[in-house]
# Entry
Amino acid sequence: MLQIIENLSKQPAACIVLSVIIFLFSFLTNYLLLDSLLKMHRSKSAVKKLKKEYTFLQRIRLLHFKENCRHAIKFCNGMIIYQKVGWFCLALYLIISLLFAFGLFSAKFVAWLTVGICLLFDVPAFAINRLLARPILFGRFKEFSFEKYHNTENHDSLL
# Structure
């Protein structure tokens, strides 16, 4: 682990850029998961009409998921809170990275923060996505395993 930190501290600018790009990919996977939860128990036209009611910035802030999710509501709200905490931590990380550019923080501190952001927000997002994804070789080709329960009366459970 210390060797990884040492290697990351040698290239802090690349470390910061890659951390932001990977965080955006993890946000995209969370967004797609929440979007699939939003589509549960609704028709395609109802989802399209619902999405048109919100502006782009409101959709980035995940407001349409918070107010309209019908399936696994507690999980959906937990994912929204998790993502908002992630955005706050990323903003804090970028502020510290900017202060690093002015020489107020060391490269090792930025490397430790990069690893922390990755372990706290990127790895769990990809793991949750992978755990809920259906295997490609078996069954229908749907993105998430809970989508097969589209017509169920149980709206509380994820699966």
About this structure: Helices lie at 2-10, 12-39, 44-52, 56-60, 63-68, 73-101, 107-132. The chain has a mean pLDDT of 84. The chain is about 70% helix and 0% strand.
